[in-house]
């Protein structure tokens, strides 16, 4: 999966409206939309896209989208 | 005195958690069992833990609806007519509505709900059921009558079991078959431990504090199921019994 597609899909999936620019350096924790439901949604999103089950403890350590991509595994992205 | 001496009981989802504990406990108080599970080594492990003899294990996927009837009927032919059916098979899902889809709903309903109804249909046939009466129990969940974020699929699949059990209780009463649901709160099993790990830390803490008596143990559920399977509960049918350490009373 391309990182750009991942970003677009995640942006749409989480229904992010609180920031104009959504990129790998976006701070997830500061987003208005980043609540417990968003965390559950990310777990489900990553499972569906990469067949990889993240735990909430793992997600607790991430700050930016870049951190999330590294958690999933950079090798799973094409660019 | 609670006992299940001479009773033949079929238990789905017997390879782990509540199903495994119920199987062990029911055998301890005299029942002969048909245990069903998907995991070969874990099902064997349950079989090895049973008291008494002549139990049958069936390694099968209960959502393989085409082959269910022939396999179950054959096992009943071997063991004798059934006095009790305990549906413990189930899968958990914590997925927000926006991440749900038809495939995920189908999977949840197939395992949690439709398999219970199909097994009930097969077991309640005259050739398979004790004409003197029987007891069916579906393990639903306290989530079958409550709601929580990320539980649209799970709650609806467990709630469907409750209404199905009521309709079935009326329909099967002439055959002296009682049908009830057990609605546990959070019971510590491998499945729920995994679920807790996937939840945001705050949500996990909140669930624990909402259980005034703490999380339940599988034996707590097995005790209630044994009672419902026994003749001590002969006037109880079509109802749901909440067993949740106080979770739903607040």
Walkthrough of the structure:
- Chain A has 79 residues and is mainly α.
- Chain A has a single domain, classed as Orthogonal Bundle (Non-ribosomal Peptide Synthetase Peptidyl Carrier Protein, Chain A), CATH 1.10.1200.10.
- Chain A has helices at 3-13, 36-50, 56-60, 65-72.
- Chain A is globular.
- The relative contact order of chain A is 0.22.
- The model of chain A has no long low-confidence stretch (mean pLDDT 88).
- Chain B has a single domain, classed as NAD(P)-binding Rossmann-like Domain (Rossmann fold), CATH 3.40.50.720.
- Chain B is 44% helix and 15% strand.
- Chain B is built from 8 helices and 7 strands.
- The longest helix of chain B has 22 residues, at 102-123.
- The A-B interface holds A 13, 15, 36-37, 39-41, 43-45, 48, 53-57, 59-60 and B 94-96, 98-99, 149-150, 197-204.
Number of domains of chain A: 1
Low-pLDDT residue spans of chain B? none
Helicity of chain B, as a percent range: 40-55%
Strand content of chain A: under 5%
């Amino acid at each position: 999966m391309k990182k750009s597609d991942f970003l677009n899909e995640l942006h749409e999936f989480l229904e992010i409206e609180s920031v104009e620019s959504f990129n790998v350096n976006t701070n997830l924790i500061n987003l208005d939309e980043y609540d417990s439901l968003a965390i559950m949604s990310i777990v489900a999103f990553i499972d569906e896209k990469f067949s990889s089950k993240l735990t909430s403890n793992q997600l607790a350590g991430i700050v930016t989208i870049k951190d999330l991509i590294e958690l999933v595994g950079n090798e799973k992205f094409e660019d | 005195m609670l006992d299940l001496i001479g009773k033949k009981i079929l238990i789905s989802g017997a390879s782990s958690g509540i199903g495994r504990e119920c199987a062990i406990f029911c055998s301890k108080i005299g029942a002969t069992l048909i245990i069903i599970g998907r995991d070969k080594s874990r099902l064997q492990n349950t079989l090895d833990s049973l008291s008494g003899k002549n139990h049958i294990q069936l390694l099968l996927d209960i959502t393989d609806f085409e082959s269910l009837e022939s396999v179950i009927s054959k096992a009943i032919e071997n063991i004798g007519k059934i006095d009790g059916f305990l549906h413990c098979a189930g899968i958990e899902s914590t997925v927000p509505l926006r991440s749900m889809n038809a495939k995920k709903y189908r999977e949840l309903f197939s395992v949690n709900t439709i398999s219970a109804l199909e097994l009930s249909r097969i077991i309640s046939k005259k050739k398979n059921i004790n004409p003197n009466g029987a007891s069916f129990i579906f393990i639903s969940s306290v989530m079958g009558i409550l709601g929580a974020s990320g539980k649209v699929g799970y709650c609806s699949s467990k709630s469907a079991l409750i209404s199905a059990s009521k309709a079935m209780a009326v329909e099967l009463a002439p055959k002296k078959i009682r049908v009830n649901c057990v609605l546990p709160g959070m019971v510590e099993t491998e499945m729920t431990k995994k679920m807790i790990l996937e939840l945001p830390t705050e949500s996990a803490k909140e669930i624990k504090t909402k259980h005034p008596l703490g999380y339940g143990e599988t034996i707590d559920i097995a005790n209630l199921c044994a009672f419902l399977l026994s003749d001590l509960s002969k006037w109880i049918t079509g109802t749901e019994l909440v067993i949740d350490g106080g979770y739903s009373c607040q």
